């Protein structure tokens, strides 16, 4: 049986596409499926933000084929682990949970590095390139831990 992992942010164009690409590059695709979604519908069918594509390219990771989609309650049925980027994503996803089992699937991704501290991956959308570099570095570290745990 495959393990299914979903990465979630607000727009599904900056942070969660990087998290998806990074984790997918670290696991065996025959055993583990990785996807991403946004809690908003702002960027449905859009490509990832150019700045996320650029920082990924710098690390020889191609995320340009991903397209934005919105998180739906049925994602709780399709995914075993749902990693959200910040506390606001957490609240928005938890609102759609139907059962305690759904709720238990949701975790802040940086709790993998800083257990129980509930630290946000800062939204880099309105900032400069340095914000994207910071996000990349945090997600690189967190996804290495996740890959080790589920592989
Ligand atoms: P993301 O960043 O949640 O990391 O994809 C954002 C992208 C777009 C918007 C906000 C955050 N927006 O307001 O359009």
TrEMBL record:
Protein keywords: Hydrolase, Protein phosphatase
All residue ranges annotated as the Phosphotyrosine protein phosphatase I domain in the record: 3-149
Gene Ontology molecular function: any one: protein tyrosine phosphatase activity
Protein's UniProt keywords contain Transferase: no
EC number, UniProt record: 3.1.3.48
InterPro entries: LMW_PTPase, Ptyr_pPase, Ptyr_pPase_sf, Tyr_phospatase_low_mol_wt
Gene3D superfamilies listed in its UniProt record: 3.40.50.2300
Keyword Metal-binding attached: no
Homology family: Belongs to the low molecular weight phosphotyrosine protein phosphatase family.
Name under which the protein is recorded: protein-tyrosine-phosphatase
